[in-house]
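In line with agreed milestones, work has continued on tokenised descriptions of protein folds. One protein thus recorded appears below exactly as we store it:

>
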Amino acid sequence: MDLERQQVVEAGLERAAEILGDVTAPVMAEFYSRYPEAQASFLHHSPTNPGSLEAEMVGNALYYVMTWFEHPAEARIAFDSSVPHHRVALGVPPDWYRGFIEAFLDVVEPVAAVSDSEKAVWRDLRENLVGLVERNRFL
């Protein structure tokens, strides 16, 4: 476990929660602005309550951001099955999967990482999570 970087992320997430509150709406707005066709997919996969699926996906992104430096193997295992499953079974392209993580980070990171050293930790976090999508892009 990388305790120092884990603490940086936790402090940043606390700061972001205080400033931004629930990030579901801004994350989804950012994601849909980049991938407008993805909105139909959320409606298709949750026709009675796409907002619930959106909140679940934001919660999943938050979880992996929160735990990356503490339990990277857990994220690797999850992404190794989730990225191919989303692509093959759900018709969700890896670009959307990656784009969702990036949208989450693009909303949270500017508030969470204020110093240069904090920004470096968040850059590393981003590279690692996006890298998990990329390593599973064609599986």
The chain has a mean pLDDT of 97. The radius of gyration is 15 Å. The chain has seven helices and no strands. Residues 63 and 75 are 9 Å apart (CA to CA).
